[in-house]
Amino acid sequence: MISPITIKIVIIGVGIIGPRHAAHVKKSKSTELFGIVDPSAAGPKVANELQVPHFNSIQEMIQECEGTGTQYPDGAIVCTPNSTHVKISAELASHGIHLLVEKPLSPTPAEAMALKNYCDSKGVKLLVGHHRRFNPHIVATKENLHKVGKIIAIQGTWTLRKPSAYFESAAWRTDISTGGGVLLINLIHDIDLLQYMFGPIERVYAELLSKQKLQYPNVDEGACLTIRFKNGICGTFVCSDSVTSPFNFESGTGENPTIPYNDGLEGLYRIFGTDGTLSVPDFNLYHQNSSEKQEEPSWLNPIQKECIIENRDEKLLTQQPFDLQLAHFVDVIRGNQEPFCSALDGMSSSLCIQAVLNSIETELPQRVPDCESIKPDYSSLGVKTFPLDKKLNS
Ligand SMILES: NC(=O)c1ccc[n+]([C@@H]2O[C@H](COP(=O)([O-])OP(=O)(O)OC[C@H]3O[C@@H](n4cnc5c(N)ncnc54)[C@H](O)[C@@H]3O)[C@@H](O)[C@H]2O)c1
After folding, report:
1. How far apart are alpha carbons 180 and 250 in whole angstroms?
2. Domain-by-domain residue ranges, the chain?
3. Using an 8 Å Cβ cutoff, are 45 and 372 in contact?
């Protein structure tokens, strides 16, 4: 039964991102922070700071609820290391708790598909935490795409330098087998946005960037991609976490409180169309619409640069994507909306990242498979699925 007044939400994992989600849940009028689940020292510390109960495990939380006759939380936000998402989410789903799972839904699409099917069978809602879809810069980009005419090509960049402590503080980030690597952790955000804005990716080719952190041989530090979308749009993308650069979404949009905002950055994304080019996050549109002569647009005429969003900072920097994502999660739990970033969307991004990794390994372009081709791996769920798995497998 859904709580009638406020939606009770538990946060699973409070490393870097968990406390940020917890603060938004605590702040919202629609939600109540039910508690924190994390077996590390961070668990009781964050719970104490936020004055909410702490549990060492989901099982401990469930036992406590049953022992005290407390209703389970309505929803959970899963903020644990990438390779743990599926098992943890399945355990929560087995108790009917709705899910907002941080990206990537899972590094392994077969596990993600099993989780999706399991959640469907339990009537549990599953939202994937690609929160940037709610970022006003992305909303405005999508709204203004038509201004470039027919989109022919795109260009994008996500480059910065992560501090050593980022890797030293969490071993899972230093090995691809535990979900580490800038491609799986960060590029996946951009892949989700690119597919959200331009449609499904059909093919990728990737060149691995040279390694700087030699102490972590099993993790990538970035890649240069060429991308072909199913609708024929082509693009390039550079992603690196080893270079000193402000050309990344966080610096350009100011959306992450720990990464300084770089005001005035241009061209994180460039969208090239028959009638113009749109640059994001500055929202300069380069076009020839106001040319005096009614001539065919071409290199013979000057190009105008026009910022198409008035009061850009006021409009784009004020709304918090995490608040908007949380409000949406509440609506999803209440049954008022379907997940804006679904399990299939999350899986599709994971499939693209897998294709990128395969391309690096084979040195060849790779076709991105459709989600329908994924065979679910129910053994990864770690919960009793029988007799449902019979039905799910058929
Ligand atoms: N949306 C975003 O912008 C964003 C930003 C950062 C991280 N993330 C994602 O969030 C997730 C967490 O990343 P992070 O950087 O905060 O990781 P982290 O390593 O800093 O924190 C993970 C926490 O999970 C806890 N944990 C591990 N196993 C657990 C379990 N079984 N039950 C409860 N807690 C458990 C750990 O003790 C740790 O405190 C990752 O999937 C990452 O990709 C998303």
Report:
1. 19
2. 7-131+322-341+389-393, 133-320
3. no
From 100, 28, 307, 321, select the one nearest 193 (Cα to Cα). Answer: 321
Give the closest residue to 145 by CA, choosing from 320, 269, 296. Answer: 269
What CATH topology corresponds to 7-131+322-341+389-393?
Rossmann fold (3.40.50)
The reply to whether ligand 1 has any atom less than 6 angstroms from the CB of 88 is yes
Tokens standing for 169? 């503080």
Closest CA to 57 of 93, 99, 13: 13
Supply the DSSP string of 81-146, one letter for each residue.
Answer: -GGGHHHHHHHHHTTT-EEEEESSS-SSHHHHHHHHHHHHHHT--EEEE-GGGGSHHHHHHHHHGG
Query: Tens of pLDDT along 326-341?
Result: 999 999 999 999 999 9
Q: Does any ligand 1 atom lie closer than 6 A to the CB of residue 74?
A: no
Task: Judge contact between 318 and 295, C-beta under 8 A.
Answer: no
- Ligand 1 site, residue 11, Cβ cutoff 6 A: no
Residue among 10, 12, 14, 16 to mutate when testing ligand 1 (max atoms within 8 A of CB): 16
DSSP 8-state secondary structure symbol assigned to residue 12: E
Q: Decide: 209 and 159 in contact? Cβ < 8 Å.
A: no
Pairwise CA distance, residues 78 & 312, whole Å = 33
pLDDT tens column, 207-262: 999 999 999 999 999 999 999 999 999 999 999 999 999 999 999 999 998 999 99
CATH code, 133-320: 3.30.360.10
